[in-house]
């Protein structure tokens, strides 16, 4: 009796483990570069959205250009809503500069909806 219950417990644990490992985790492609320090302010906020197109990879560049005395301390790009497997990355400037260019690109056949924040002084 004890051996049967032990075998049943082991079988149940293995089954749960296999089911949990087969479920893919949702991927979020947020961009978080730098730190928001006390005294920093939101320099700019932009919402970027592209609707899905069949079998197409789309991209959009977000460009922020501050004045000469502006210094960027953080750049964030946060995906809004359910994931569409898009990616965001910095291609020019960024933390410590007065400008930044962020590229947002879709996965083939998908779209995106991001909010991009630029923080600094």
Give a brief rundown of this model:
By secondary structure, this protein is of the alpha+beta class. Helices cover 17% and strands 43% of the residues.
Can you lay out the helices and strands and say which pair or pack?
Layout: H1 2-22, E1 31-34, E2 41-50, E3 59-65, E4 72-79, E5 87-93, E6 99-105, E7 112-120
Give an account of the 3D structure:
The chain is an alpha+beta fold. It has one domain (26-120). Helices cover 17% and strands 43% of the residues. The chain has one helix and seven strands. The protein has one helix at 2-22; strands at 31-34, 41-50, 59-65, 72-79, 87-93, 99-105, 112-120. The strands form two sheets. A four-stranded antiparallel β-sheet has the order 1-4-7-2, with no helix packed on it. A three-stranded antiparallel β-sheet has the order 3-6-5, with no helix packed on it. The longest helix has 21 residues, at 2-22. The model is unreliable at 16-26 (pLDDT under 50). InterPro entries: MBF2.
List keywords for this structure.
121 residues, alpha+beta, 3-stranded antiparallel β-sheet, 7 strands, globular
End-to-end C-alpha gap: 71 Å
* Major sheet: arrangement of strands: 1-4-7-2
Number of strands: 7
Q: What value does the Rg take, in angstroms?
A: 22 Å
Task: Round the mean pLDDT to the nearest integer and report it.
Answer: 84
Helical proportion, percent range: 10-25%
Based on helices, strands and strand pairing, what is the structural class? alpha+beta
- Share of β-strand residues: 35-45%
